[in-house]
Amino acid sequence: MRTSARLGLYGGGLALLFAAAFGTASAVVPESAAEEWNEETGGMDMDMDMGADSGHGDDSGHGDDHGEAAASVGGLAIEQDGYRLGEIAAPRQAGVAGTLAFAITAPDGEPLTDYTVSHEKDLHLIVVRSDGTRFRHEHPTLDEHGTWSLPWTWDVAGTYRVYADFVPADADGASGVTLTRTVEVAGDYGPETPANTSTAEVDGYTVTLDGDLAAGTTSDVTVAITRDGEPVTALEPYLGAFGHLVALREGDLAYLHVHPEGDEPAPGDLSGPRIEFATEFPTEGRYFLYLDFQVDGQVRTAAFTVETTGAAAEAEPDDHGTGPAPDGSATESTPDGHGHGGESASDGHGH
After folding, report:
1. DSSP states of 191-220
2. What domains does the chain contain, in order, with CATH numbers?
């Protein structure tokens, strides 16, 4: 059985119920900006659950057409499809313990209290600083009034993006919406500029990301995990998968969520050292990627910064008959204008 529901992202409203120890957030990107991004990217969907039977395509998890974008860019607005993310109450300063809380309003204006379980949770909370650092993936608690909350302390100051990721109970199928707000945290602030890297070290684990990251087309991404030079084969299921990969586009922090290809693991299953993903980056540029994986009951996060390339142009025959060979392989142009068979590219992945 494949994962049956993808993560969606939605928004809602929250009255300020907390004392002066808490601050509020404001939306960083208006809906008009989100619509503009949709126009520029051809309406690409930044919220995908690869390898899931969630209405995106066939059971392979690649969809019906590797070259086609999905519905919309996610994580750029506070409201979508009538669902609205309300103001976020949170500590004002770094190092001050408090509570982070928010509510989501439904299209009828009432607090949303009914959710569809998606990846074993009703709602996924993603928080990251605007420079791509300090990533956190949490699961708050919902009360009877529709307010989500959890204990919260900001480690360092800065501007943070908060994403609410869920599927409402009345959603059509497994549809979801991505909504976001910004929280300003006071304190000594030194912005960071993560260097491009496809290797991360976390708690003695070495995590390496490999793949042809081309914009505008399906990219196969593989993550390999080792420890002390030995492959890790004890990856445990976490939220219904052996790994979760989130990507944020540098600049606007548009949100992409992907999951591994393959069947949903059963409790007690183990895997590793490789996790395979298929995803689609909407534009060229830098992306911050974060992989959550679990070993021995502990979840760890590996962070990467990668640069996508332009989508490979589709080869077109010319007057000399150059272009794809009859067997679907690529051709190599020579000075005489004739093509010679090269490596196979017939599967659309460049393998």
Report:
1. ---PPPBSEEEETTEEEEEEE--BBTSEEE
2. 22-29+75-185 (2.60.40.1930), 199-308 (2.60.40.3340)
